[in-house]
């Protein structure tokens, strides 16, 4: 989950990066789940930070039942 990746039509990409950081950090701190509606291989995962401080998907679920 790379924070600087945004869509070309985003009007305020810097704000979007800040918002994305806040959402990922909240999911991580609350041990919640992130849902990937457009990912054909991962339906949901928990979020952690790696040794470099980047957000990574862990405990991936291939499908929800």
Domain count: the total is 1
First-last Cα distance: 24 Å
> Low-confidence parts lasting 5 or more residues at pLDDT below 50?
none
Tell me the major beta sheet.
Answer: 3 strands, antiparallel
Annotation, overall tally of beta strands = 3
- Strand proportion, as a percent range, falls in 15-25%
User: Spatial order of the strands in the main sheet?
Assistant: 1-2-3
Short characterization:
The protein is α+β, with helices and mostly antiparallel strands and 65 residues long. Helices cover 26% and strands 23% of the residues. It has one domain.
Describe the structure.
The protein has 65 residues and is α+β, with helices and mostly antiparallel strands. The protein has one domain (13-61). 26% of the residues lie in helices and 23% in strands. The protein has one helix and three strands. The chain has a three-stranded antiparallel sheet. Strand 1 and strand 2 form a beta hairpin. The radius of gyration is 13 Å and the shape is globular. The two termini are 24 Å apart. The model has no long low-confidence stretch (mean pLDDT 91).
């Amino acid at each position: 989950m790379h924070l600087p990746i945004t869509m070309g039509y985003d009007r305020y990409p810097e704000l979007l990066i800040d918002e994305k950081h806040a959402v990922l950090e909240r999911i991580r701190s609350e041990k919640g789940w992130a849902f990937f509606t457009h990912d054909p291989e991962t339906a949901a995962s928990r979020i952690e930070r790696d040794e470099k401080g980047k957000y990574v998907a862990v405990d991936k679920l291939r499908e929800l039942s």
